[in-house]
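Researcher: Next entry in the queue.
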Amino acid sequence: TWMEEGIGVHGQPLDSDWLGISYEAYVFNAGRAFDISAGGGFRGVRNNNNAGAYDVKKAGAARVAFEPARKWKSFADYFELGFSGYVSEFTGRRATATAPMLGGNGQVQIWSADVTYEKDFGERRKLGFRGEAAMAHVGPGRTNRARGQQGWGYYAEGYYEFWPTALNDSPFGKDFNDPRLVLAVRQEFTDLDLDRFDQSDMSRTTVGLSYRPTPRTVYKFDFQMDVSRAKDGPGHPDSGSGTFTDAFLFSVALGF
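Model: Structure for this entry, 256 residues:
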């Protein structure tokens, strides 16, 4: 989770029957990380409340979203394209021979594009897709001893909501107004440092089935498969230490 103190604006300058355009923009505290490692990724630049709200350096983030298919209900009930960016200066430290990570002061930039698609077929059947791709760059500032870092990643997820009528009188359906089952497949990839080839270059495939007795409650059963592209090097911080790592996951989420 990335949280900072700041101020933002949002709005919808165009809201017609055929096209919707919305925006949101924020200004908040700049990054204050001391280092950014290939294993930890760009989350190391987070402020984590280390800078005061009146610091002279600031960061900015913005997103613009388009809904170009409002008239094409035969194609989609909801279709959105989004484009976003984050730019921040940060204060770091000089790189050394024993700590050859990014040092000094510099700037981090993250640019991404995302898509969301939903089509409701009625009778508790809905098809959906969402995905996002992002590029990130960290550049050294006022020190020649620091090195830059670039990375990229993406995720693509398709899902299908349904409800078998055979379950209407079962304990999973008889006491709920609109229960759903959701079958989902997700593919994602991260390369946190394009100049290095190690196990931080990770691909992940997840196949899962979710049970939603109410819109704000979900029980998830997932099978997750991680594959690192390199056989040597440190393991990914979010995965196991092997080249191939499989796991069964169970989770419960409640909304309020």
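Model: Confidence is low (pLDDT under 50) at residues 141-146.
Researcher: Noted, moving on.
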